[in-house]
TrEMBL record:
<dbReference type="Pfam" id="PF13692">
    <property type="entry name" value="Glyco_trans_1_4"/>
</dbReference>
<keyword id="KW-0328">Glycosyltransferase</keyword>
<protein>
    <submittedName>
        <fullName>Glycosyltransferase family 4 protein</fullName>
    </submittedName>
</protein>
<dbReference type="GO" id="GO:1901137">
    <property type="term" value="P:carbohydrate derivative biosynthetic process"/>
</dbReference>
<dbReference type="GO" id="GO:1903509">
    <property type="term" value="P:liposaccharide metabolic process"/>
</dbReference>
<keyword id="KW-0808">Transferase</keyword>
<dbReference type="GO" id="GO:0016757">
    <property type="term" value="F:glycosyltransferase activity"/>
</dbReference>
<feature type="domain" description="Glycosyltransferase subfamily 4-like N-terminal">
    <location>
        <begin position="14"/>
        <end position="172"/>
    </location>
</feature>
<dbReference type="InterPro" id="IPR050194">
    <property type="entry name" value="Glycosyltransferase_grp1"/>
</dbReference>
<dbReference type="Pfam" id="PF13439">
    <property type="entry name" value="Glyco_transf_4"/>
</dbReference>
<dbReference type="InterPro" id="IPR028098">
    <property type="entry name" value="Glyco_trans_4-like_N"/>
</dbReference>
Amino acid sequence: MRIGIVCPYSFDEPGGVQAHILDLAEWLNNHGHTAKVIGPCSAETPVPDFVTRGGGSIGVPYNGSVARLSVGPKVNARLAGFITQGHFDVLHIHEPNSPSYSMAALRMCHGPIVATFHTSGAESTALRLARPALKPLLEKIRGRIAVSEMARRFQVNQLGGDPVLIPNGVDTGLFAAAATRAAATGSDAVADSGGTGVEVVFLGRLNEPRKGFGLLVEALRYVHCPVHVTVIGSGTQIPHERISYVGRVSDSAKADYLARADIYVAPNTGGESFGIVLIEAMAAGAAVIASDLEAFRAVTDQDSDHPAGLVFPTGDPQALAAAIDRLAGDKDLRAQLVANGRKRCADYDWDTVAREVLRVYETVADGTVVSV
């Protein structure tokens, strides 16, 4: 099967949707299919050969973040070339209501179309007002996917339809292999933490308040156990005796940092519909502490008898500090959470998730080629 995949967000900045799309395309290409991707991307950003660079982007405030989108006539021209040259059996559009490549693709294309909805949020006045104009476009979608119950509910309430729930996928093998390497080489948390024995990792854009980096820094004032924090991500660095900054890193380096961690902390304050990095941390063998967000509760399976992490009241630095102290001081609890996490992350492995997506493709493909 030939699949065209449309990404609304720029590959120049790392993000969950972009990672999802690249991983899905790679899995499809490695399993007998041909997948091509188009989305905003500058000439300087390294991307796989299956990605068509869609040019520059502009930053637009969205959902507590800044989404980098492409707009203008060049988008339509690039899309038209991508579609006509691709001869796709299915076009898979991510975030079709995003005013970038995705909405442009939905507007101009005809044929077997699948859409994945990643975003969840509160009632949107702008989206409600735009719904009459969006409705005929959304009716072109033959197969709908939501990555979480929150995203599914948001789509049903805001846009109509009833999508199938298929979660984000994670290359769990990459992170499990990093854990194996760390154990074999003795490159463990004790070395990373300067001898304290408890290594904490945070990953996220430091200047984006909803990622919770400021909350983590504040929480360290109340942490009693000797811990060291490694911070992965771009942004303004706050000097702190307990923190080391490594900036943006490759996927393999990220896996190695997570594999050497005792604890992974996700102090996000909102705007999350999933939590890919929580799954990555579980696969790498880190015990997870996360904000008590609905999406994070679901990923860490909080309502089961074997939760795969601790949660703390969102936005409460002292509660976060207490959770860090609890895990830092209880090696047995960490081991139990790690074991639960490794079982939990199997549900999100790409080998499972991509096959579910492929079944959606098969239900909408009708032998015609996507056209403009």
